[in-house]
Amino acid sequence: MKFISTRGQASPVGFVDACLAGLAPDGGLYVPEFWPRIEPAGPKESYVSVASRVIAAFADGELTTDEINGICERAYAGFAHQSVAPLVQWGSNAFIMELHHGPTLAFKDIAMQLIAQLFDHVLAARGARMSVTCATSGDTGGAAAAAFAGASQVDLFILHPFERVSPVQRLFMTTTGASNVHNIAIDGDFDACQSIVKSLFADRDFVDETGLSGVNSINWARIAAQSVYYATAQAALGSDRPLKFIVPSGNMGDALAGYVAARCGLLNGFEAVCAVNENETLKTLFESGRMVRTPAIATPSPAMDISVPSNFERIAFEVSGRDPEAIRQIYAGFAQSGDVELPEKIRGPLSCSGLSAQSVSNSTTLDEMRKLLQETGWLICPHTAVGTQVARQLFGDDDATIVVLSTAHAAKFPETVLEATGADAPLPARVANVADRPEVFDRLSSDPTVVRDYIRQRQRD
Question: What separation in angstroms does the CA of 423 have from each of 144, 150, 338, 369, 413?
């Protein structure tokens, strides 16, 4: 199987090279040239087994069965729950899927642990090194730091918006003590961080010089790895049961993973609602067909404070009939004006894609955290609360079973939990010492040239 760019001007590559590259050289995002048919998960099949089969379908012979099994076994060995992504019943026909049992208490661990194992295995086999970068609105950076800390073949550079992530999120990034992990606090919001990363990848000489790769949700391995828990949810709840997923969304990678699972035959149909906060770009896209760049608004759910959802490009490519020229025109116009109308060939099919979006205000998010605690005794993070609030709006709409993705542990946002509920949200014992470790990070301007020089100075030969 080859992977092609959504913008159609990059040569097709294999699975491993698509994952190592992250972004295609023409600025597009890699997608498989066709959707492989994958046998649905069995009700008693282990998470590692399902993950191995999914990765094998996309790798298509580039890695051996033993190599893939080893990568997946190592990736999930450190999770606190043997199911990796367990379901807990919330109501008569509603469940919450807990995605926070990894080492940094966020759903990003599920994909990042696998990516780190994949990168180190492949690079060691090739005798190569890479510089890996990611922009983070909170959880991606911590997950990347934990996954790549001490990796022999990778230097990791994490960009986060200065003072716009929670203190606990920051600690998971900045306290690894690993010499190959470099944290950069950018003067700006998440979109500024993401823009810098895109600028770095646009400089092809710099990419070649540093062996640059990215592990944001632009990386296909992230999407493939996240599609696994959709498959295990379907298996656990019954293969004949229609499911409606509620997905707290920022960059849209998590919702895209559900779409991918459905296209590969892992789900019984597909419906997913992107639950967004007061940053309503996705809602505007789905409801009016306009993509508008606006300054990101600070909210209680900071990992979703994103105004340019990168993975929408992959969905637009699919619903356009895989028309790269249409995608190039849309994103060229967006880069120039920050405001584009989607053509009808995208807007029409988009309404039939199974994806939609609903938003939740800041005050309602806090109210939802308090309400769920009163009803169930559970503390939830503000991102999960955006999801459960959207789910409440949909109760009784149809016979589908609702599955809300719980994207992070409440303990990652203790200040917000305390404000909303009056309750403390202590860190689980297995990670409680993170607050006792020294922090290391550097504060830089949002000038890509400054960041480029910083990476050059710190990468290992």
Answer: 29, 36, 41, 11, 12
